[in-house]
TrEMBL record:
GO molecular function: peptidoglycan lytic transglycosylase activity
Domain Transglycosylase SLT: from-to ranges: 28-318
Record carries keyword Signal: yes
Any GO BP annotation: peptidoglycan catabolic process
Protein name: Lytic transglycosylase
Length: 323
């Protein structure tokens, strides 16, 4: 027993040493960032912003000890995450800003219901924004994980925003993860897709709903959003389908899926749209809900999202539309 305890202590110490060896001191990491910024062509404004970076202490938030059971099916997940109250709240929010979302759709061809659904579900109606100095947060994160290129990319993007005069340092506020505004955007998103949609002369996704939603719509459009398509549809199978077809990477036309025995969820024929390809999605197997996922589905799905999460966005967007 004593040997086991000693071994555990040695292993724990070794793990801690390995963790510490992969991190860098705040000052050393800042020096590294300065070199990267110079190589990236960041000018005097961005370099000056680096000199104002303060040490930010990351705080690990202990999760509640109480275990929350995970939903066992998509039906349970939707009932939990997209309940009546959330649908009502999202629908009311959309209706009160319908004129704004109409203008955004005219400009970027992305319906506002998808923007609201993503905001409502991914951020819980804008919770968790935080009001920390974003650049300091990002530098602290980068120093903890210097081998993770994600943080250096976000830091350089933040410096570029400042250097190009798009966002002043004092407005660059984030939560403890470096995510900014009610839509929890990254500096890279703002740099690549940021829009001053209300035309007040500044990019402000923190205080301007117009700028925030237009930026998200611009991102989806630039990534290939199909203006005349939705995200997908729930379907049913009228004939056995080969297992290899349950693969989002296997794209087929509506005609091909129709011939394979796929129908709308109410049994009607699929739309006769031959220039639309889709993949078959069965998150709970053939006994659960079955979907045809269109190309727009992949754009709604973030790299760290599950199919349950992405399907809930499409589901809520449909609930907003069909009032």
């Amino acid at each position: 027993m004593r040997y086991i305890l000693l071994l555990l202590c040695v292993c724990s110490a070794s793990a801690l040493a390995n963790l510490q060896s992969t991190s860098m001191s705040h000052s050393d990491y800042l020096k590294q960032v300065r070199v990267q910024a110079q190589a990236a062509g960041i000018g005097s404004k961005g370099q000056q912003a680096l000199s104002q970076v303060k040490r930010f202490r990351s705080v690990s938030v202990n999760q509640a000890a109480e275990e929350v059971s995970s939903p066992e099916s998509l039906d349970q997940y939707l009932a939990l995450e997209v309940d009546f109250n959330k649908v009502t709240r999202a629908r009311d929010y959309f209706n009160r800003r319908e004129a704004l979302f109409h203008r955004i759709q005219q400009a970027y061809s992305v319906p506002g219901r998808f923007l609201v659904a993503r905001w409502a579900l991914e951020t819980d109606f804008g919770q968790g924004q935080g009001d920390f100095p974003a650049l300091s947060v990002l530098v602290a994160k980068g120093a903890e994980e210097p081998q993770n290129e994600f943080w250096s990319k976000q830091i350089l993007a933040a410096l570029a925003l400042i250097d190009q005069g798009k966002v002043p340092l004092e407005r660059l506020r984030s939560n403890r993860h470096g995510q900014m505004g009610p839509l929890l955007m990254s500096p890279e998103q703002l740099l690549n897709y940021g829009v001053d949609f209300d035309e007040d002369g500044k990019l402000d996704v923190w205080n301007s709903e117009a700028d925030a939603y237009a930026t998200l719509a611009n991102e989806l459009k630039q990534q290939g959003w199909q203006a005349d398509r939705t995200w997908g549809r729930q379907v049913t199978l009228t004939a056995p389908v080969e297992p290899q077809h349950f693969n989002l990477g296997l794209l087929q036309s509506m005609t091909e899926w129709q011939q394979a025995g796929v129908r709308r969820w109410d049994g009607r024929d699929l739309p006769k749209v031959d220039d639309l390809s889709a993949g078959l999605l069965v998150p709970d197997g053939v006994e659960g809900r079955i979907y045809l996922a269109y190309p727009n589905y992949r754009l709604l799905m973030r790299s760290d999202s599950s199919h349950y999460q992405t399907l809930s966005i499409g589901y809520l967007a449909d609930r907003i539309k069909f009032q």
